[in-house]
TrEMBL record:
One of its GO terms (biological process) is quaternary ammonium group transport. The keyword Metal-binding does not apply. Keywords: ATP-binding, Nucleotide-binding, Transport. This is ABC transporter ATP-binding protein. Residues 4-238 form the ABC transporter domain. Belongs to the ABC transporter superfamily. PROSITE patterns: ABC_TRANSPORTER_1, ABC_TRANSPORTER_2. It holds the Pfam family ABC_tran.
Length: 336
């Protein structure tokens, strides 16, 4: 049973449809990204999931139960909500902001304090330094992390995020996104995240729902939207970013069969440790980044090692990697 399901959701404002007949399922622990141009209905759709907006027609199911079967306040206790404006309470300290929901839920004060401290530490906000500060003493990125800590405080199984990194500059944004991806706390959460940033969507999504004018244009794993666009809107939407996105969705495992066999027999040009090979699940993007950081060995091209099977690693050079990548893209585009 999916953790979260939307069935035929529709919402009008006046005579205009903001969301039209949208359905999706999110399995427990998975992340669905709602993506699309400004005004396409992403926020309206997200807010229908926690009943901040009530749909005209359609139904939201949480663990198989109709979201309308419980009062909205109760529903929202099981769903963290993170928004771009962060919405921290200005007269509360960082620790007090994080503790708001568990306190409302009547958790024991000692447990709330321990949880707050743990979360601040995990989100790189050492409590000694930050617990007693006020929101206006923090940078935008720090405030965003407090907002995330607050949404996680009561450990809700589902988290809804509306442009959670939207207010940050691109560099802070990329680094917070990396932290976010690696947070053990979030690995088991079911998440729905709104963004209009294509790279962000590809980094974070298990599934992407691409919307235009309130309607689903395509729903599927990122690589499917990229390699098998359902229509011209989808194709155009990723147009300018095609190559960068392909480098992110293709993994070493996808290109291993495109490598020339003689690569097996060049164990001399080791530079990225053979004892510490890259996993074949690494993206081509991350592999290229690794290659660009290692010094070229005296005798030739820089080489990384890729784990092919449990006992075999093989070296990979920049040109072979790019050739194999090109072949793999063609093969995947042309289909089976
Ligand atoms: N409360 C409201 N009253 C009237 N119209 C609204 C309301 N909320 C949203 N809309 C309209 O519904 C449409 C979808 O808005 P929504 O905020 O869901 O889009 P969005 O994709 O999240 O946009 P953005 O990326 O710019 O935040 C827009 O045309 C918007 O003007």
């Amino acid at each position: 049973m999916p953790a979260l399901e939307a069935r035929n959701l529709t919402k009008h404002y006046g005579s205009r449809a903001a969301v039209q007949d949208v359905s999706f399922r999110v399995e427990a622990g998975q992340t669905l990204v709602l993506l699309g141009p400004s005004g396409c209905g992403k926020t309206t759709l997200l807010r229908m999931l926690n009943r901040l907006v009530e749909p005209d027609t359609g139904v939201v199911l949480v663990n198989g139960h109709d979201a309308r079967s419980q009062p909205p306040e109760l529903l929202r206790r099981g769903m963290g909500y993170v928004i771009q404006q962060v919405g921290l309470l200005p007269h509360y300290t960082v620790a007090e902001n994080v503790a708001v929901v568990p306190q409302l839920l009547g958790h024991a004060p000692a447990a709330v304090a321990a949880r707050t401290e743990e979360l601040l530490r995990r989100l790189h906000l050492p409590p000694e330094q930050f617990a007693h500060q006020y929101p206006n003493q923090l940078s935008g990125g720090q405030q965003q992390r407090v907002g995330l800590a607050r949404a996680l405080a009561a450990d809700p199984p589902i988290i809804l995020l509306d442009e959670p990194f939207g207010a940050l500059d691109p560099i802070t944004r990329a680094s917070i996104r990396r932290e976010f991806r690696e947070l053990p706390e979030l690995r088991r959460k079911t998440m729905v995240l709104v963004t209009h940033d294509v790279t962000e969507a590809f980094e974070l999504a298990d599934q992407i729902l691409l919307l235009d004018a309130g309607r689903v244009q395509q729903l599927g794993p990122p690589r499917e939207l990229l390699l098998r666009p359902a229509n011209n809107f989808v194709r155009r939407f990723f147009g300018a970013d095609q190559l960068a996105l392909q480098l992110r969705v293709l993994r070493l495992a996808d290109i291993l069969c495109e490598l020339p066999d003689n690569e097996y027999f060049q164990p001399s040009s080791i530079s990225y440790s053979v004892n510490n090979p890259l996993p074949s699940t690494a993206s081509i993007h991350d592999t290229l980044e690794k290659l660009s950081h290692i010094p070229a060995p005296a005798s030739g091209e820089p080489t990384v090692w890729v784990q092919v099977s449990k006992s075999t690693a093989r070296p990979l050079t920049y040109p072979t990697l790019m050739t194999a990548f090109g072949r793999a893209i063609r093969r995947l585009r042309e289909g089976p």
